[in-house]
Every structure is written in structure tokens, then in C-alpha cells.
Amino acid sequence: MPRKLQDEDSILRKIADSFRSSSGQGLGKPIVLGIGDDAALLRPKPGHELILTCDWFLEGTHFLRDKHPPDSVGWKCLARALSDVAAMGGIPRCFLLSLALPETHTGRWLDLFLGGLRRASRKFRCFLAGGDTTRRNDILINITVVGEVRTGHAILRSGARPGDIIFVSGRLGEAELGLHVLRHNKGMASTKTALRRKHLYPEPRLALGQWLAQKGFPTAMMDLSDGLSTDLSGLCAASAVGASLNHSKVPQVRILAATPRRDYNSHQLALHGGDDYELLFTVPPRKTKFLPETFQGVSLTAIGRIVRGRKLLLLVENGRAMQLVPSGWDPFRKKL
């Protein structure tokens, strides 16, 4: 059996070696000084301001050690943090990794975790700049991402106005259903199905967010991480407005015959399911005619309208309106 890593320096060397070929350092790259010193140095582009975001990814809360493949944990911990950069129309530059794990997981598990993290880092061109490690019985991961956006061009949550049309990207509820599929299968899940892939290997909508910001379409934007009902409530609160959603327009997950149970409700999954990492954004009516139906294969769907007041309404059959109660992910209410 391979010798277990016994000290922090060995773990840090393993992490640094894993990312050596994609360090982000060098001429024209964002990191002036990376792993190996007390702190990193970053060179922002002229005419840009920095985006800073951090995200926890915790065993038992966000992933299950016996269900989630280690490489998917590595991929997802970075991808979900990058979704916040996408929601502001930004470009990711680098990230910091803080990792706590038991000694038993400093060998094969860590190798696979770093493999998934490295793949995400390369795909989304967000380079490891440093971080911290410690020992703990359960696995705790914190990712801090630094991004950038042209000065004055960040898309905020607080810009929605009455009359704006509400859009979402993609199909909602897929990741939540993928989690249910994962939990009801024994052992490690295959990554072949689309549902599992949406849950295990989410794709932050970076290109879409940047394109929307460049075109000046959104008045407000955020990512869908906690579920449409909860995230729309947050956007409306920030903008001091309400919303009216058309239930039939919300793009819903397709319930497959192969799912382990048959009592899933696609409407409820689309409204309240979390972890999709799609974009929720509002657009003035005069600009909606310039929006395509898809962007790089991802659908863009109008699902409602921003209204005056603070109520969230859901229009159902025969035009009947009912209150939409935020019922998505809340870490103080729910566990994985």
C-alpha cells in the first residue's frame, strides 16, 4: 500500500505539483506571485475592477463522501463559486483553496479530488494562487475566487424595474433530481446520465454572463444556486420590487423513466430545486427582441415579469394567481 501523507508540507507540495503546469503565472497572466510565499500577488487589468467571492463546500451539507466521486467534489467546489462571477458578467482570474481533510484521505482521494479541481481550473481558466490546509475528521472545502469586470459594468441584483421581463437559462430542477438519483443508487454513481452530470459537474454560465453584460441586456442578474423561488425572492428584495411568474413558462426537468421513484414533481423541482447554477436575469421589454432563444446551446426563456410592490405571484391554470413562497435551499433548514 502507498505510504500515507503524514505532514502538511507533503500535502501542500502535492497540491502545488498538481497545478504547476497551469499556475497562471508568467507574462500576460494574472498571478504575479503564486503558491510558495506568505500570500499571492495579483495584477488586475487596467480599466477593470475586482470581483471577490467565496464559497463553502462541506461534507454532509453539500456532498456525501460515500456517494460523490472525489473528482466531482473537486470540479464542483470551484464551478459553484465561479457561478457567482458569471452572475455579475465577470471573468474569473484565480482562486484560493482552503482544505481540511482526514489523514486517511490524503492519498488516492486527494489525488482524484485534485484531478477534478485541475480540470475545472483549466476549462474555466481560473488559476490556483494559494490557500491553506489542515487536518479534520470530516472534509471541509472553502474556495475564494477573484474575478474582474470592466469598471462600472458589473451586473447587480438590485437593478430590476417594474415591467422588466424575467429570464432564466437552461432547464430547472435537473440538478435536484440528479441528487435524488444519486442518493437512491448504491455505491459511487456513474456520471453517464445527464441528470447526474448536472448535479456532479455543473457548468457555470460564464460565457453567457459575459455576453449579456457586454450587450447591456440585463438590469439585474444572479445565479440560481438555491432554487428559483428562493433566488428570485432575493433578487426582488435587492431591487425593492415584486414578480409575477407564469407557471407554464418555467423550463422544467424531464422526469425519466429510469429514475428510482415515480413520484417526482417536475413543477416543484423547477421552482424549488437548487444546485442548477443557471442564470436568472431581467431585461427591459424593448430589448427582449434582441435576445436569441439559445446561447451556445443553452436555452434562454422568458418566465414572467417584474411588478410593483413586494409580492411574488405564480400564475397557474386559467390565469389564477397564487403566492409563491420561497422554498428552495436554506442551510439552516435543510441538509443534503
Index terms:
336 residues; alpha+beta; 60s Ribosomal Protein L30, Chain: A; Phosphoribosyl-aminoimidazole Synthetase, Chain A, domain 2; eight-stranded mixed β-sheet; four-stranded mixed β-sheet; 26% strand
What report would you give on this structure?
With 336 residues, this protein is an alpha+beta fold. The chain has two domains: 8-150, PurM-like, N-terminal domain (60s Ribosomal Protein L30, Chain: A), CATH 3.30.1330.10; 157-323, Phosphoribosyl-aminoimidazole Synthetase, Chain A, domain 2. The chain contains eight helices and 14 strands. The protein has helices at residues 8-18, 70-87, 108-123, 174-183, 194-200, 206-215, 228-239, 266-272; strands at 31-33, 41-42, 48-58, 91-101, 127-135, 140-150, 165-169, 220-224, 242-246, 278-283, 294-295, 298-307, 312-315, 321-323. Strands 7, 8, 9, 10, 11, 12, 13 and 14 form an eight-stranded mixed beta sheet that branches. It has a four-stranded mixed beta sheet with strand order 3-6-4-5. Strands 1-2 form a two-stranded antiparallel ribbon. It is globular and about 65 Å long. The model is unreliable at 186-192 (pLDDT under 50).
